Amino acid sequence: MIKIKNLNKYFNERHVLRNINYNIIKKDRIAIIGPSGSGKSTFLRCLNLLEKPTSGQIYFNDAEITNNKTDIKKVRQKMNMVFQYFNLFENKTVLENIILAPTKLKKINVKKAIENAVVLLKRFNLEKQKDLYPKQLSGGQKQRIAIIRSIAMNPEVILFDEPTSSLDPEMIDEVLNVIYSLTRSKITMVFVTHELNFARKIANRVVFMCNGKFLEEGTPEKIFNNPETERLKNFLKNFK
Ligand code: ADP
Ligand code: MG
Fold first, then answer.
1. pLDDT of residue 16
2. First-to-last CA distance in the chain?
3. Ligand 1 atom 5, closest CA
4. How, if at all, do strands 188-192 and 29-33 pair?
5. What pLDDT digit, counting tens, does each position of 175-194 carry?
6. Which ligand 1 atom lies nearest to the CA of residue 36?
7. Facing residues of 24 across strands?
8. Reported confidence tier of residue 140, pLDDT bands at 50, 70, 90
9. CA–CA distance, 51 with 144 (Å, rounded to integer)
């Protein structure tokens, strides 16, 4: 579904992604772990072209999206991103946040978009919040709304960049549960996380990023129980 070939990213002189090659298959749930500054966010942002790769190619459903002809907005509709700090529109209600992209980008009519949104809000127990503004919500609620907003676009892929790392501990599980529930759908997921137990539970592949490289890659079993490199062994030790 997504093919990454010789992906490099520089910020000025700084070589942040170093020749990454990787394939993501439909319904994969890829967890990306690794120390801070290793390039995890930059990698995710390159996938949906929030950052422009310096060199290399990314293919999405066989179309190269790293050429200039690509309609980036179309790509982002199919490959949505959920951010650490939610990025909800503060001046819009929960419902307005959710229906904005479906009505504006996908041209779904407002009535239908509201119906869809309410179904999702009910499913995740947030119906009561539909007319509130983001500032009236807890962090966990905001992030669940941000995820619902993403799902409302019916994307093929959702990219999560540390979706729980800005949350108070008691709110982490409610957000992880929402992400976990998506494993029953056909959505492909790539998530950067420091929640290693969660990664182990829901990922089918885990990538350990270090210094801009995919240093190790494999099943959760391999990465967490049989790490090969000293770098990964140390990283895991620090988490225990
Ligand atoms: P991670 O998400 O693993 O913590 P990032 O992808 O955010 O790592 O950052 C990787 C490296 O790239 C870091 O050294 C960071 O300082 C640098 N970096 C990230 N974004 C920018 C930017 N917009 N301009 C310059 N340097 C950046
Ligand atoms: Mg990051």
1. 98
2. 34
3. 39
4. parallel
5. 999 999 998 888 999 999 99
6. 4
7. 2
8. very high
9. 25
Question: 21: CA distance to ligand 1 center in Å?
Answer: 19
pLDDT digits (tens, 9 = 90+) for 54-85: 999 999 998 999 998 888 888 888 999 999 88
Is pLDDT above 70 for 219? yes
Domain boundaries, the chain: 2-40+58-239
Q: Give 184's DSSP letter.
A: G
Instruction: Provide the pLDDT for residue 12.
Output: 94
The position carrying tokens 């290793």 is 38
143: closest CA among 188, 195, 81? 81
pLDDT band at 238 (very low <50, low <70, confident <90, very high): confident
Query: What own/partner pairs with CB < 8 Å and gap ≥ 24 does 73-76 have?
Result: 73/105, 75/48, 75/49, 76/48, 76/49
Ion ligand 2 neighbours (CB, 5 A) are 41
For residue 32, give the ligand nearest its CA. 1
Ligand with the closest atom to the CA of 84: 2
- Which CATH number is 2-40+58-239 given? 3.40.50.300
Instruction: Indicate if the pLDDT at residue 240 is higher than 70.
Output: no
pLDDT for the residue numbered 127: 95
What's CA 28's distance to the chain center, in Å? 12
Nearest residue to 33 (alpha-carbon basis) of 173, 226, 232: 232
Question: What residues line ligand 1, using a CB cutoff of 6 Å?
Answer: 11, 16, 36-42
| Ligand 1 center–CA 188 separation, angstroms | 25
Q: Whose CA is nearest to atom 26 of ligand 1?
A: 11
| Contact by Cβ (8 Å): 141, 126 | yes
